[in-house]
Amino acid sequence: MSFVAFAMNGLLAVLLVVALAFGWRLERRLKALRDSHEGFAKAVKDLDQAAARAEQGLADLRAATDEAAETLAIRIERAQALAAQLDERISNPPPAPSRAERAPPPVRGRVEDLPPSAERRLKAEDFERLLEREARLPPGARPTLAAPSPTRETPRSRARVDDDLFEGPADSPRPEPNPRTRR
């Protein structure tokens, strides 16, 4: 064998070793890329599932909000109707019944004497009887809470009062200290 053939074989061996090293490095990088791709695919799948859960949660929240809005609207309508009835009864009290029409006063007993099915809530009839009893009292014997203000009620002022009923508490004019901070 000649020296040139031996040198060419040596050069070829060195080039093959270098190619083998480059191939090995490339394989490691491709493996890392595949692993990161699998991790990325898993992260995308988890993100997709979280988005689906969030969409379902939003749909449930929307349905609950709609239901609460309907319930609140019904309750507001009932409250306004009852307020109108109460205003009408206050402004136009019924005539006082004669002595013959009066019912005997209710017998007052202990709570233990009441049947278990007796309700403790006032009914409309109880409230009407209370208003009638108050109307029969002489003017001097009626309890007064406070002197009514001389201001005249207008539909606009009434609207403000109704709005105040459904708004949250007003913000305080000055900031309050944080109770969690040390003084």
UniProtKB/TrEMBL annotation:
The keyword Transmembrane applies. Pfam families: DUF6468. It comes from the Bacteria. InterPro entries: DUF6468 (IPR045531). Residues 92-107 have a biased composition (Pro residues). Residues 33-91 form the DUF6468 domain. Keywords: Cell projection, Cilium, Flagellum, Membrane, Transmembrane, Transmembrane helix. Residues 109-136, 153-163, 173-183 have a biased composition (Basic and acidic residues). The chain crosses the membrane at residues 6-24. This is Flagellar positioning protein PflI. It comes from Caulobacter segnis.
